[in-house]
Fold this protein.
Amino acid sequence: MTIQSEGRVGPWATAREARDLLGVSERTLTRWRKASLLKPGEHWRRKFPCGNSPVLYHLQHCEQTMNEASARSAHLLEPDIQAISPAG
């Protein structure tokens, strides 16, 4: 998936633009930031250097992290079937 948006210049996008282009909610982006899945300076930054400034997202870096997270092996994501199967 390659992200492109008409009228946007540069790799940084507002939360609303990122939501639409990445296909996830703004709340999900916030949860990923708080869980450190998205790292400050690499995946997101503040528009201005103050705590209540809007957040901007680096679309390519966010997309890459999303792809890496979804490409994990099924055995890492699913519970161990042998551990939950009754002994027989």
